[in-house]
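can u pls check wat happens w/ MF3
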Amino acid sequence: MRLFKHNWPVPKDRELTEMDKKILFYQQRGHLVPTPSLIKTPEQIEGIRRSGKINTGVLDLVASEIKAGMSTAQIDKLVYEYTCDHGAIPAPLNYEGFPKSVCTSVNEVVCHGIPSEEEILEEGDIINVDVSTILDGYYSDASRMFIIGKTTPEKEKLVRVAKECLEIGMQVAKPYSFVGDIGHAIERHAKKNGFSVVRDLCGHGVGLEFHEDPEVPHFGKKGTGMLLVPGMVFTIEPMINMGTWKVFVDEEDDWTVVTEDELPSAQWEHTFLMTEKGLQILTY
Ligand code: MF3
Ligand code: CO
């Protein structure tokens, strides 16, 4: 016998809305459903959207400045200064001890790369720049890949397929679909292209905190995981590897995540709002 954990309370002080009815329907069938706290108010959504605008401004600035010969510490400086100049805070800085304002992950680095004066971008490198912003307490989170000059066709394809994985994940996430539908679609597209999906790191709810529920794996089975309901805000951020999906964490800094076979990895990320019609990007 299993005690069923109800997390969508039956409202006592008001009539059931259509949304209550749908959530209770899935809950009764044993699905994981959001808690009310995961459904953002219109005011919170606007706050996250404003944060997302600054986050996008940061990424656009990086896009216009990034080039061969630049250090990843220079990217960190751009991010820090632009963010502060706009009255915001870089979310990574001091987050669980992270020492810089942005994650810069080059070639075989999957994510959480730490910017450094010693790391100089070279022609042919592929780099993920992962920017997260706090504005008035609201968090946004997005990342893009940049190709430095010209790279190999294989790395170009990896960057393109990783972007397609994000787009496909976005398309399948409809209201009253499931988190697992996203992962299923992403994994299928990656595998079809001969690539693998990192399993140790996931997308996540975001907005009032940096990382909230639900976890959003980029692999999995349709119809599993949390029910997706209008008002939820979360990231999709598939990390796609050229070789094995396996990764390890650099022992020296305890942050940098690297592919086990040291083949390249690519990642794209947006913060999304679930609406009645599907996902809307809050980091455009
Ligand atoms: N931006 C990352 C994410 O997409 C989190 C980085 S945590 C940090 O969730 F501390 F490394 F910045
Ligand atoms: Co994220």
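The chain is about 30% helix and 25% strand.
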